[in-house]
Design goal:
Blueprint lengths: L3 H4 L5 H9 L4 H6 L4 E2 L10 E2 L20 H6 L3 H24 L35 H16 L10 E5 L13 E2 L3 H8 L1 H8 L5 E4 L3 E2 L2 E2 L4 H11 L5 E3 L7 H6 L5 H10 L13 H6 L5 H17 L22 H14 L1 E5 L13 E5 L7 H4 L12 H9 L4 E5 L19 H10 L2 E7 L29 H10 L4 E6 L7 H6 L2 E4 L7 H9 L32 H4 L17 E10 L4 E3 L14 E9 L5 E10 L9 E10 L4 E8 L6 E2 L5 E3 L2 E8 L5 H7 L4 E7 L4 E2 L2
Parallel strand pairs: 3-5, 4-6, 5-8, 10-11, 10-12, 12-13, 13-14
Antiparallel strand pairs: 1-2, 6-7, 9-14, 15-16, 15-17, 17-20, 18-19, 18-23, 21-22, 22-25, 23-24
Helix pairs in contact: 2-13, 5-6, 6-8, 14-20, 16-20
């Protein structure tokens, strides 16, 4: 047997993969399309399991750094932080892989192909898996997805690990119907909302893999959709990596979607549509499908070549000393440096939503007793979210406060109530912790109420311990007796700080009216308790921005099963939000001045100027402004750029640029954000992106330009109008 070609490192990865596949029998090739690909001993091919997870740290394979959940990372609005976190995750991934290989461990969750990030759009806050995503905005999701992928995959000759953008496409609940659900979506919404983040991950991020979704989209099962996988992914976007099914999604074709009659038809549809890898076991039926003429062997050759190309890119068939990542030792897992980055990442994700009379930060020199009350105060589950690894240390909010306070203040604790049930003890009466909570509140100088959700209440269908069965939330309210507890604490007359832990928007209109300080810390990671304490006591300045809209009630929302974007998310909603997308307060004060827009040829248009045809979207524009920290605290601010197109029936002003800047008190910096012409494009009813004639409004500021954001922040973004003349032009 001549194996020189596929071991020849001078040839391209694809050439080598083709040469290797050419040595295989049909049966060997078929079994390589399963996620748990067996060894082919006669060719020296080791067994390999493609299924691994790294949503916010290496998951499900022992000790690793457990970073804030993805939705929390999104709240940082910080591309550089996302890249740094992803690079750290991939270093730990290689370190763990190298160790596992040394001991012959090739089990599930032990490979280098990681099924992350999740860039589905969090279109409805009831969706249980929304905390796995980067939020509701296609632009933000795309930017963070690209930086996560680059941080994971690296930029050398070999890939550090292989990332995977999921779940393609139009997938965001309901979880209890996902195996049979048909997401009906207009071409306009498909292109404007559901595809842009995936497109960015493929065309800019160079993501190595894409995972199909469980559902159907407009009648086609996503893992066998010709439109999604062939026409768009491979055709329009020129994707060159491999496609995997979601786990056991293929059997849904004939069992629930009813788009095929049996297993052979199912695997034929998936394979012929370009689904290369089966997370499941149905692809064993490809043997019969080939015999029956439903699949050409060349289609299987193509799929297996793509899969081995990925493994070649990872250096799995090269000399050990040729692949620099093989030198990463296990000592690089769970380092002190990584724990410090974890704490810093958690600090940067925390959103300050209300701070009446500057109650925060708390001053330990003025406080003798602190009451920490609530079901999430000492809840480890509420630190991590789902798809998590195992941290070597977990620090709850209670523990973080106790550690920071030291001997400066007494910390008193009460669970207050169960997270969602009406009592803590099964044999007790309802509300069996209320008396204790009131006593603690009365004895305290300040009360920190730690409420919200945990991944037992929101998550993926079938997750162990998920109390709502499907994983979706029935409404947006605080579960169980939590709001009753909060009201009782407020009645005690002591200052109350509400800390929310959770992975989605929670409707807290009563708290907004009656509680002086509100903080959202998401699922802040294993070091989250320390990060929350840092923010509460002024060791860190809050800088998070909401990646999702906080609504007032569930009644504001369209039906959960309605995938039309009308009245959904900040981009299409008409009513004022409780807390808008892009909003977040700081302990310091900020000013944006000298906002202006420049054309490529140097024409300038200031904020106070009238509309000018000289600065046009056709060639893109450059936005500039001066950001100044006018307060007394060092901090960071996200400068946000929004664009409203002339299409009045189109989306509201949409986020099209952002930049996180860190400044000392009194310090200023000029911020430059470039907008390509695509930022001004709008999709028509046929799903074609066009530039329209008319006025384009550009907003440069620290929030959206909506009235509620202006009300909450007390400052409006600068508005600059540019004019495009001439006819409508197709961009792509």
């Amino acid at each position: 047997m001549n194996t020189a070609q596929w071991l020849d490192e001078s040839k391209s990865y694809e050439e080598r993969a083709k040469a290797l596949v050419g040595e295989m029998t049909l049966e060997e090739k078929v079994f390589q399309t399963l996620f748990s690909a067996p060894a082919i001993e006669r060719l020296g091919v080791p067994a390999y399991n493609y299924w691994n997870e790294a949503l916010h740290g290496v998951a499900r394979a022992g000790v690793a750094t457990v970073f804030p959940q993805a939705i929390g990372l999104a709240a940082s609005f910080d591309e550089e932080l996302i890249a740094q976190v992803a690079d750290t995750i991939s270093t730990e991934a290689r370190a763990k892989f190298n160790m596992q290989q040394k001991y012959g461990d090739r089990d599930i969750y032990k490979g280098l192909t990681f099924w992350s990030p999740n860039v589905n759009i969090f279109r409805d806050p009831r969706w249980g898996r929304g905390h796995e995503t980067f939020g509701e905005d296609p632009f933000l999701s795309g930017r963070l997805g690209v930086r996560f992928i680059r941080g994971m995959q690296g930029n050398g000759r070999y890939m550090k690990v292989a990332a995977c953008a999921k779940h393609f496409a139009v997938h965001s609940g309901p979880e209890d119907q996902r195996h049979s659900f048909n997401a009906v979506v207009s071409e306009q919404d498909l292109r404007e909302t559901y595809l842009p983040a995936f497109r960015a991950c493929v065309t800019e991020g160079g993501v190595e893999a894409v995972m199909g979704a469980y559902n159907r989209t407009n009648g086609e099962a996503c893992c066998g959709s010709r439109k999604l996988l062939v026409d768009i992914l491979r055709g329009e976007w020129k994707f060159g990596g491999h496609v995997t099914s979601d786990c056991w999604a293929l059997k849904d074709f004939h069992e629930f979607h009813m788009v095929t009659k049996n297993q052979e038809e199912t695997v034929a549809l998936a394979m012929n549509s370009g689904c290369d890898l089966n997370c499941g076991n149905l692809y064993v039926h490809l043997l019969q499908a080939v015999r029956d003429g439903l699949v050409e062997e060349s289609a299987i050759d193509r799929a297996v070549t793509r899969l081995f190309t990925t493994r070649m890119k990872l250096g799995l068939f090269d000399q050990k000393d040729e692949v620099p990542y093989n030198e990463i030792g296990y000592e690089q897992v769970d380092t002190q440096e990584n724990r410090e980055l974890n704490r810093e990442a958690s600090r940067r994700t925390i959103c300050l939503l209300k701070n009446e009379n500057n109650l925060l930060p708390l001053n330990l020199s003025e406080i003798k007793t602190i009451g920490v009350i609530g079901p999430n105060a000492d809840n480890r589950k509420a630190l991590v979210g789902n798809y998590e690894g195992t941290a070597s240390e977990y620090v709850t909010v209670l523990e973080g406060i106790r550690e920071l306070a030291g001997d400066k203040a007494r910390i008193m604790y009460s669970e207050g109530c169960h997270l969602f049930r009406d009592r803590v003890q099964g044999l007790g009466q309802p509300n069996d912790r209320m008396a204790e909570a009131k006593a603690v509140a009365q004895m305290s100088d300040v009360v920190i109420a730690v409420l919200g959700l945990d991944p037992g209440l929101e998550g993926e269908e079938g997750d162990q311990g998920n109390e709502f069965a499907s994983g979706d939330k029935p409404n947006l309210e605080l579960p169980g007796l939590q709001e009753q507890l909060l009201k009782a604490l407020a009645e005690c007359g002591k200052p109350v700080v509400l800390v929310l832990l959770g992975g989605s928007a929670i409707a807290v209109p009563w708290a907004d009216e009656h509680i002086p300080a509100i903080v959202d810390a998401w699922y802040p990671g294993a070091q989250g308790g320390r990060a929350v304490a840092d923010v509460l006591f002024g060791q860190a300045c809050p800088e998070g921005k909401l990646p999702v809209t906080f609504y007032r009630t569930t009644e504001e929302l369209p039906a959960f099963t309605d995938y039309a974007m009308k009245n959904r998310t900040y981009r299409y909603m008409k009513q004022p939000a409780l807390y808008p997308f892009g909003y977040g307060l700081s302990y310091t004060t900020w000013e944006i001045s000298d906002a202006r827009v420049e054309a490529a040829e140097g024409e300038k248009l200031g904020a106070a100027a009238s509309a000018s045809a000289k600065v046009s979207p056709d060639d893109g524009v450059v936005c500039r402004a001066v950001l100044t920290n006018t307060g007394n605290t060092a901090g960071a601010q996200t400068v946000q750029v929004y664009v409203k197109t002339p299409l009045e029936s189109g989306p509201n002003a949409q986020l099209k640029g952002l930049r996180k800047i860190r400044l000392l008190p009194g310090e200023s910096a000029e911020v430059t954000i470039s907008l390509a012409k695509e930022a001004f494009g709008v999709y028509n009813e046929r799903g074609v992106r066009v530039l329209l004639p008319g006025e384009y409004r550009i907003y440069i500021g620290m929030s959206q330009p909506d009235a509620r954001s202006v009300e909450l922040l007390g400052v409006a973004p600068s508005e600059i109008t540019i004019v495009r003349e001439g006819a409508e032009t197709v961009i792509d």
